[in-house]
Amino acid sequence: NHLTTFERARIETLYKFGYSRRHIANLIGRHHSTVARELSRNAKNYEAEKADANYRLRRNKSKPKGKYSCEIADKIQDLLLKTWSPEQISNTLMNNQISYKTIYNWLYSGLISKGDLTVLRQKGKRRKPAEKRGKFLIGTSISKRPKEVNKRQSFGHWELDTVVSSRGKSKGCLATFVERKTRLYTAIKIPNRTAKSMEYAIKQVRLAMPIDAFKTATVDRGKEFACYSSVEKDLDIKVFFADPYSSWQRGSNENSNGLIREFYPKKTDLAVIEN
């Protein structure tokens, strides 16, 4: 259901007369995100003729690319504008059928509008800094996590992480929790990124909810999660550990942490914010 040449001409006329994107969408009978995407991918001075030519060029480029299609490109652009990362899009939307590297390649080659590069929280390859606080014997691997949890079929399965203050600021940080099925998100301020502080945060979230509302936790291999054995024993929460350098295995939490960074940038001292 792509825009026609006539619809692009109407968009050009209405846009030059100062109509808002949402108003234009109502007038031509399209969803406002379709109009917003059309205008954002075709520069500031929108011209229907050029936009139509660009669309046809993208279609021609897509033919030898196999997996590429304008429909997939549109879905990816919508999620990028919502501040999703290519890694999260690959895992969540595409079920890894299109790798995040392919999405980056499409971005930089122009198959997906380069204007959307400005909304990426991470540019290109990224890795979480290597753990330098020592190692511990991890518990159950994510590979053994039940299918029910993987498919987000029931409530009560959480992804956990930490958001830290800027280097040189303080040790204050946030323990973050996102529920996999509903994407319910909560964060608790803790004094430092230690196992003791994380265990305290987990207990606070657990006690604030009904018994069956916190069944499992999926975490990375940071040393703050060395408390997992007591969490499993005392709180009856099964803990699963993601693979190294596999942030996409906790895509919901990674995305939510990225959103919270828009309110509390990396330079923020998290020790002084309100809980």
Automatic annotation (TrEMBL):
<dbReference type="InterPro" id="IPR001598">
    <property type="entry name" value="Transposase_IS30_CS"/>
</dbReference>
<dbReference type="InterPro" id="IPR036397">
    <property type="entry name" value="RNaseH_sf"/>
</dbReference>
<dbReference type="InterPro" id="IPR053392">
    <property type="entry name" value="Transposase_IS30-like"/>
</dbReference>
<dbReference type="GO" id="GO:0004803">
    <property type="term" value="F:transposase activity"/>
</dbReference>
<keyword id="KW-0233">DNA recombination</keyword>
<dbReference type="InterPro" id="IPR012337">
    <property type="entry name" value="RNaseH-like_sf"/>
</dbReference>
<dbReference type="Pfam" id="PF13936">
    <property type="entry name" value="HTH_38"/>
</dbReference>
<dbReference type="GO" id="GO:0006313">
    <property type="term" value="P:DNA transposition"/>
</dbReference>
<dbReference type="InterPro" id="IPR025246">
    <property type="entry name" value="IS30-like_HTH"/>
</dbReference>
<comment type="similarity">
    <text>Belongs to the transposase IS30 family.</text>
</comment>
<dbReference type="InterPro" id="IPR001584">
    <property type="entry name" value="Integrase_cat-core"/>
</dbReference>
<dbReference type="GO" id="GO:0015074">
    <property type="term" value="P:DNA integration"/>
</dbReference>
<dbReference type="Pfam" id="PF00665">
    <property type="entry name" value="rve"/>
</dbReference>
<dbReference type="InterPro" id="IPR051917">
    <property type="entry name" value="Transposase-Integrase"/>
</dbReference>
<dbReference type="GO" id="GO:0005829">
    <property type="term" value="C:cytosol"/>
</dbReference>
<keyword id="KW-0815">Transposition</keyword>
<dbReference type="GO" id="GO:0003677">
    <property type="term" value="F:DNA binding"/>
</dbReference>
<keyword id="KW-0238">DNA-binding</keyword>
<feature type="domain" description="Integrase catalytic">
    <location>
        <begin position="142"/>
        <end position="275"/>
    </location>
</feature>
<comment type="function">
    <text>Required for the transposition of the insertion element.</text>
</comment>
<protein>
    <submittedName>
        <fullName>IS30 family transposase</fullName>
    </submittedName>
</protein>
